[in-house]
Each structure stands twice: as C-alpha cells, then as structure tokens.
Write a structure and sequence with these properties.
The protein is mainly β. A hairpin with a 6-residue loop joins strand 5 and strand 6. The chain is globular.
Amino acid sequence: QVQLVESGGGLVQPGESLRLSCVASGLTFSRYAMNWYRQVPGKERELVATMAVAGGSSTYAEYVKGRFAISRDNAKNTGYLDMNSLKPEDTAVYYCKAQHRNVLIIRYWGQGTQVTVSS
C-alpha cells in the first residue's frame, strides 16, 4: 500500500520559516518525481514546486521563487519543502505528490498539512 505522509506544518508569524516533510512508503521513491502543491478553501490546488527523480532539476511557482526550496533524500524516501520569509498569503494546506517518472497516470498524494502564517 502506497502512502505519502506530510508533516511539519503549523502556525508561524510572517517572516518565519517552516520545513515540510513528505515520507513515502510502498513505492520505489527514486522512480518518482516529487511535487508540492497548496490549496486554500474555495480555490483550486496550485503547484508550488517540483523536483525530478534524481533531485537535480527543480522548478518553482513565481510567487515562491527565492523563498522556498524543494529537496529530497531518496535514501530516506523523503521529500522536503523549506519555506522561508513566509507571508500570510502562503497560508494553505500543503500537499506532496509523487509522480511516476515514466507513467504519468501513476501518481500518489499525501493527506496534506496545514500551514498558517499570521501575526
């Protein structure tokens, strides 16, 4: 059974940092690209960052460039999203997704972790 479990969310003040983790089980993690999305109530889920299977190539949404960093440790079956200089508009539920590198219809989602940025 494949599982992705996010953790690390919480309540922080503007300007602070958080590190989200996504631990994968039941799959060969190194065969999957890692993506992070976020969603606020009433809006569509939006892509925040992506990282290729080997960890060398990453992309970011314009609104998080320079503040967020995606990384992965294939030996630990874990992906990360380091979020710095957080803003209130970053408040959302953050989800990780594992996307098979060759078969695009094979993808798995985590349950999400809430990030709230508020003073």
